[in-house]
Design brief:
Blueprint (H helix, E strand, L loop, with lengths): L3 E4 L22 H17 L3 E4 L16 E4 L2 E4 L11 H10 L3 E4 L19 E4 L2 E6 L5 H12 L4 E6 L6 H4 E3 L5 E3 L13 E3 L9 E4 L2 E5 L3 H9 L3 E5 L2 H4 L10 E2 L5
Parallel strand pairs: 1-2, 4-5, 7-8, 10-11, 13-14
Antiparallel strand pairs: 1-15, 3-4, 6-7, 9-10, 12-13
Bound molecules: citrulline (CIR).
The site of citrulline has 19 residues, from helix 4.
């Protein structure tokens, strides 16, 4: 079966999206974002992904960052509980998409209080999957209660959660992602604790920290990190580089523009 990926068209109001760790830009161009998003779709399509569109949510400026609103773990879909109030209703569309795909769908109930006496919040951008482990960034949008709730949900499908404290970036996957062989890549000044990763490769540019695995030998990344791309090529990988400048202005990157389903989740 070919891999599948969920995507969601950018809102015309993208410029009003949230920013936390970066200055708000007054140059966000929604038309340019649309063109960049279409190129992103084309790359996934050319790589063999069947693309599934989540119904657009033009009233939600950040809805293009669909990764935050749905997580898939094998054939299980987890409707997330986004940490930013402004983004919580984005899950209405991703839940429908998960049902349409025929995936078993479970919920991380928004705002439910757990043993840590804090609300359950979890953004998909905080979940980095390597093998059977889901590394979950806690300290930004995702709470410890959210990570624990996810751990209970995925235990049934043979996965485990490991909490990763973060403070330097919006999401865990804003600071680190993983190459096909599981090597974690990150730009050191933005990585909270590089020593916690058994296999860590430092990249020379912030945008070099974000890769989407297209297959076992190919990664998709931003074209703003050419020296990092060279490092990956030296390791035998093929690199597809794209301009994602408009999304970066809103603290997004290549990973958050899609939800990749098994086997490249
Ligand atoms: N997974 C991600 O990296 N998501 C990016 C979300 C950016 C959006 N402006 C936000 O602050 O929620």
């Amino acid at each position: 079966m070919s891999p599948r990926a969920l995507v969601r068209a950018p809102s015309p109001q993208l410029a009003q999206g949230l920013v936390t760790h970066v200055e708000r830009s007054d140059t966000v161009d929604a038309d340019r974002a649309r063109t960049q998003w279409e190129a992103y779709r084309s790359v996934l399509g050319a790589a063999g992904f069947e693309l599934i569109e989540v119904d657009p949510a033009p009233e939600h400026p950040d809805s293009v960052f669909v990764e935050d609103a749905l997580l898939t773990v094998g054939d299980l879909a987890v409707v997330t509980a986004p940490g930013a109030r402004e983004r919580r209703d984005e899950v209405n569309g991703t839940r429908v998409a998960a049902h349409r795909l025929g995936l078993e769908t479970v919920e991380l109930t928004d705002g439910r209080r757990e043993e840590h006496d804090e609300p359950v919040h979890l953004d998909g951008g905080d979940v980095l999957t390597i093998g059977d482990t889901l590394f979950v960034g806690v300290g930004g949008r995702t709470t410890r209660a959210g990570a624990d709730a996810l751990g209970r949900l995925v235990a049934d499908v043979g996965r485990r959660v490991e909490v990763v404290p973060i403070s330097r970036t919006l999401h865990l996957k804003s600071q680190v992602t993983a190459l096909p062989d599981g090597t974690v890549v990150g730009y050191a000044p933005l990585v909270d604790d590089a020593s916690r990763w058994p296999s860590f490769l430092e990249v020379p540019e912030p945008e070099g920290a974000h890769v989407v695995v297209l297959d076992e030998r190919t990664v998709l990344m931003s074209d703003a990190a050419p020296r990092s791309a060279d490092l990956f090529r030296e390791r035998g990988l093929s690199v597809v580089a794209l301009d994602v400048s408009e999304f970066v202005k809103l603290e997004g990157c290549v990973t958050c523009l899609s939800v990749r389903l098994h086997p490249y989740d």
